[in-house]
Specification:
346 residues; D-Maltodextrin-Binding Protein, domain 2; 5-stranded mixed beta sheet; 12 strands
């Protein structure tokens, strides 16, 4: 009888232990499932990629600053949603525009030159067809400079004839604004040897003598110009005032600008009259949903001081400048925010 009792006791203990383990496993699995569901909610990540340009200009710095500001401060997202925002170095405006409207382009926003956007959105020039892009905000003016060395002997844009001139990175689309500018000064691409290179490479080419002059444009000071002036005596080739007037009259993206001497202390002793050859602006595809563009625009604008810390071009994010029409229609999401804060101009 004792033996039976002992077996019965052991059986009960084993049954109880298995039951306890089973319950523990069930509770553990339940807890893990709940945690997994919570993690899924927390990791509902939306990836936002911003196209910029090659190194040496302001696009990379400004685009990176905007990406950092938006990821850190994004407003208006649903609970459980987060944005991962990155800035990608590209060949510039043309690549950015094409990738924005492509199904697999992997860009949600981009920086672009307003002159190139102007022709793309209308399907003119080499664009062949309309590219449905929309403006988010107008940023810093893209103030153009034809840069050479004092030793080159080049004193005017007309003197570029017969020279080796860097006209921007290959595929960047600088010809959309450079051809009108050169044309008003009596020069065509056939009159000189056009070379393609990013700004820092162009600076090296001026230094080693493989180029006689280079066009550089952007928000000032342009890093590549500043770098070059540290080792070379740089000269800014002047624009003809009458040519500037005609260009401003003909195109919505051109306007007169002056470069202050303080921006380039080693080069200028007085202000330099120049030309905005198409403002840097932030663009997106027409197909991007209104809420995304609204939240993005709101975050950049409300945290614009953080962008300024990365580059002075951030100062252009103000109530007067961001809504300037440079020839590309604005996205409804951006318009909604600007109307909300009372700065939209009908």
């Amino acid at each position: 009888m004792k033996v039976i009792t002992t077996y019965f006791t052991i059986f009960c203990l084993v049954f109880a232990l298995c039951f306890t383990i089973g319950c523990d496993n069930k509770d553990k699995q339940s807890t893990e499932n709940e945690a997994s569901e919570t993690d899924e909610k927390k990791t509902n990540t939306v990836f936002i990629n911003i196209g910029t340009a090659s190194g040496g200009g302001a696009f990379v710095q400004v685009g990176s600053a905007i990406a950092g500001v938006v990821e850190k401060n994004i407003e208006g997202l649903d609970e459980g949603v987060e944005w991962k925002v990155t800035a990608e170095s590209t060949k510039g405006t043309q690549e950015n525009i094409r990738r924005l409207v492509s199904d697999d382009g992997n860009l949600e926003f981009a920086l672009a030159n307003a002159a190139i956007s102007y022709f793309a959105v209308q399907g003119e020039g080499d664009w062949k067809k309309v590219h449905p892009i929309r403006a988010v905000m107008t940023l810093a003016p893209n103030i153009g400079l034809f840069v050479t060395t004092k030793a080159s002997g080049i004193k005017s844009i007309a003197d570029l004839k017969g020279k080796r001139v860097v006209v921007g990175p290959a595929g960047a689309g600088f010809e959309y604004f450079l051809e009108p500018v050169l044309g008003e000064h009596g020069v065509t691409y056939n009159d000189f040897s056009p070379l393609n290179a990013p700004y820092f490479d162009a600076a090296d080419m001026l230094t080693n003598g493989s180029a006689d002059a280079a066009f550089m444009g952007g928000a000032h000071p342009i890093p590549a110009v500043t770098q070059t002036s540290a080792t070379l005596d740089i000269f800014f080739i002047p624009f003809e005032p009458a040519s500037i007037d005609k260009l401003v009259e003909q195109y919505p993206f051109f306007d007169k600008r002056t470069v202050s001497a303080e921006e380039y202390e080693k080069i200028l002793t007085e202000p330099f009259d120049s030309l905005n050859v198409g403002s840097m602006h932030l663009i997106t595809a027409e197909s991007v949903d209104e809420e995304t563009v609204y939240n993005f625009t709101k975050t950049v604008y409300n945290n614009r001081a953080e962008v300024v810390k990365a580059h002075k071009a951030g100062r252009a994010i103000n109530e007067k400048n961001v809504v300037i029409n440079v020839g590309t229609p604005f996205h409804p999401g951006a318009i909604r925010f600007y109307k909300e804060i009372g700065i939209w101009i009908e």
